[in-house]
């Protein structure tokens, strides 16, 4: 490969459905898109995201050793993306990451034109219902998450795109692939293909 890969920087409120979208991309399009795992100081048994669990000490050591391409703190945990994404991009692979809305500006400074911001959005009503349904946060934490989501709502750079995840996961995937194909005009237009979604694999 002789081109630089594109970094699709996925953001959205907790409960918006980023994890489901990323897992679907990983399952359905492994040859076209590499989905990076995050390193988090949160139990791997907490549910939701398929991440690499690190202790606070491990995280600090890896950060000091320069093993992270990005790192930030949110909701009481430390998050990072490994240096492997830089290697993948340099080899021409397109990469999808689960990013932080607050870290987007720094990511765009570090990776420049290669970054495509992607907002996974849902209505405030749908987000509230999902947060209460999953039962991971206390009511006051849900209020904080809803307020943070409202603060960031509509803040998508012109270089990015928004996918609405208020409906079915299949509709969300189709929106993502349609936009992805527009950034990769030299590749086969994936949005014209029938999406072979196996709902049992995505649950």
TrEMBL record:
<protein>
    <recommendedName>
        <fullName>Ribose 1,5-bisphosphate phosphokinase PhnN</fullName>
        <ecNumber>2.7.4.23</ecNumber>
    </recommendedName>
</protein>
<feature type="domain" description="Guanylate kinase/L-type calcium channel beta subunit">
    <location>
        <begin position="4"/>
        <end position="184"/>
    </location>
</feature>
<comment type="function">
    <text>Catalyzes the phosphorylation of ribose 1,5-bisphosphate to 5-phospho-D-ribosyl alpha-1-diphosphate (PRPP).</text>
</comment>
<keyword id="KW-0547">Nucleotide-binding</keyword>
<keyword id="KW-0808">Transferase</keyword>
<comment type="similarity">
    <text>Belongs to the ribose 1,5-bisphosphokinase family.</text>
</comment>
<dbReference type="InterPro" id="IPR012699">
    <property type="entry name" value="PhnN"/>
</dbReference>
<dbReference type="InterPro" id="IPR008145">
    <property type="entry name" value="GK/Ca_channel_bsu"/>
</dbReference>
<comment type="pathway">
    <text>Metabolic intermediate biosynthesis; 5-phospho-alpha-D-ribose 1-diphosphate biosynthesis; 5-phospho-alpha-D-ribose 1-diphosphate from D-ribose 5-phosphate (route II): step 3/3.</text>
</comment>
<dbReference type="GO" id="GO:0033863">
    <property type="term" value="F:ribose 1,5-bisphosphate phosphokinase activity"/>
</dbReference>
<keyword id="KW-0067">ATP-binding</keyword>
<dbReference type="InterPro" id="IPR027417">
    <property type="entry name" value="P-loop_NTPase"/>
</dbReference>
């Amino acid at each position: 490969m002789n081109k630089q890969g594109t970094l699709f920087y996925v953001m959205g409120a907790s409960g918006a459905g980023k994890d489901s979208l990323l897992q679907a991309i990983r399952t359905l399009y492994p040859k076209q898109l590499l989905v990076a795992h995050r390193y988090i100081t949160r139990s791997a048994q907490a549910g939701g995201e398929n991440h690499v669990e690190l202790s606070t000490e491990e995280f600090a050591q890896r950060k000091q050793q320069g093993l992270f391409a990005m790192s930030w703190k949110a909701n009481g945990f430390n998050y990072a993306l490994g240096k492997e994404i830089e290697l993948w991009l340099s080899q021409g692979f397109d990469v999808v990451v689960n990013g932080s809305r607050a870290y987007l500006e720094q990511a765009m400074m570090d990776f420049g034109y290669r970054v495509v911001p992607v907002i996974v959005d849902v209505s405030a009503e749908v987000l509230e219902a999902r947060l209460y349904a999953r039962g991971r946060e206390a009511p006051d934490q849900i209020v904080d998450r809803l307020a943070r989501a409202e603060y960031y709502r509509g803040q998508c750079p012109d270089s990015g795109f928004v996918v609405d995840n208020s409906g079915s996961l299949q509709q969300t995937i189709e929106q993502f692939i349609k936009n992805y194909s527009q950034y990769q005009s030299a590749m086969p237009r994936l949005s014209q293909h029938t999406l072979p979604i196996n709902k049992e694999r995505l649950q």
